[in-house]
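Many groups now describe folds with learned vocabularies. In that spirit, our science desk offers one protein's residues alongside their backbone shape tokens.
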Amino acid sequence: MAQGSRQVQTQAQQQIQTLSPQQILVVKLLELPAVELEDRVRAELLENPALEEGREESPNEEYSDASDADTGLEDGGNTDYDSLSDYLTEDDIPDYKLQENNRSKGEQAEEIPFSDVTSFYETLKEQLGERDLTEHQCELAEYLIGSLDDDGLLRKSLDNISDELAIYAGIEATPQELEDALKIIQDFDPAGLGARNLQECLLIQIRRKIEQQNFTPNPLLYIEEAIISECYEEFTRKHWDKIQQKLGLEEDAFEQAIKEIVKLNPRPGASLGETIGKNMQQIIPDFIVDTYDDGTINLALNNRNVPELRMSRDFNEMVEEHTKNRANQSKESKEAMMFLKQKMDAAQGFIDAVKQRQNTLMTTMQAIIDLQRPFFLEGDESLLRPMILKDVAERTGLDISTISRVSNSKYVQTNYGIFSLKYFFNDGYTTEDGEEMSVREIRKILKECIDNEDKKKPLTDDELTELLKEKGYPIARRTVAKYRQQMNIPVARLRR
């Protein structure tokens, strides 16, 4: 008789970082822009009977209740959460008089119109809904869509996104699972979305054309694919002879392939935003910044359509009824009481999350104003100083990922127009003397130099470098070339 193998059980101590449901709620609300927050709040009002819209009738009542909450109510006083002492711990006792009102009494917020048309983000989510995916795949794909930049490209690594999902959303996802979800997004329209760099963006568009061929294949498409996949470095440097020699291409076929490649869209998300978002959808700013002649800058949240929240008075009366005779409660009464507790906990947690969202948004925006104060006073783009997420995080004491979430899909209304919060973030360039300059400012001056050049004799990168030095921007020639390429400006010989 064969002797069966024995299983050995072992214990191992492992430290895992997880988020509480309350922390996850705060993160999700933090990501929402103003219009979506309003929808989320109204949905919560419909779902939770313990939550209601409105403000307290009298400020005196608020102070009285706040005092009672601190000291505890005497027997025979007004019923509050002390009556739930058998069901709630001290940590569960809420301060339910939280109200959000960022305007003085009688002040009218500016009427800001909006159009309820399909946005860029919603368009991609609609395409996602047409796919037969598991719930987990949908979660990953939706997060990836939210991580795309304005060009429709994914600048973050999948490893970083995997960490973000685990820490901030409580979702475990391997880089391979994210890779599979990204392939789904890369199949969306317009072609090129979800690419991680320009090379991948162009290849997605070319391969989409290859897949959509009819019965007669177009050999030109395969030449385009070979150029971008095998000779991309030479392509970016316009070393045409090297490409022809490496791939053994005829002159005519090569020239036709190059003409088709340059027609491809390097910014598929931007083109979709122009046709669907920018021309059709009016932006709702999340912040309103007013600048006055005396140098005062006033910041306010745009919460005009977001309801104020409080705990339901009717619900409190129900609690009072169920707690009058706690000693002789039936099983049904105790179950009802537990239901009330759950709803009250959820309501208070939601109120706290909304308040925390608003505090975080105000703290972050105030830090941006402080760091970019010259711009908010003058409205001159060249006054924008170098600023990255880390600068705002250090000033506010918040995590960089929190600053990133606040900056994503949020807008601010200023005296000079409405801007995305991302607009205020730009890299810096440090000269040999240690002077820090804004990349945006250097690009602006560089573009002005090229716009004003003699088109019959365009300036070379060396000449542009010398011209910038004369204007007080001592940067290297290779840096000039990099900024020129980033602005999609060709070399001098192609600008004739």
The CA atoms of residues 263 and 337 lie 66 Å apart. The chain has 21 helices and eight strands. The first strand starts at residue 51 and ends at 53. Residues 58-117, 274-281 have pLDDT under 50 and may be disordered.
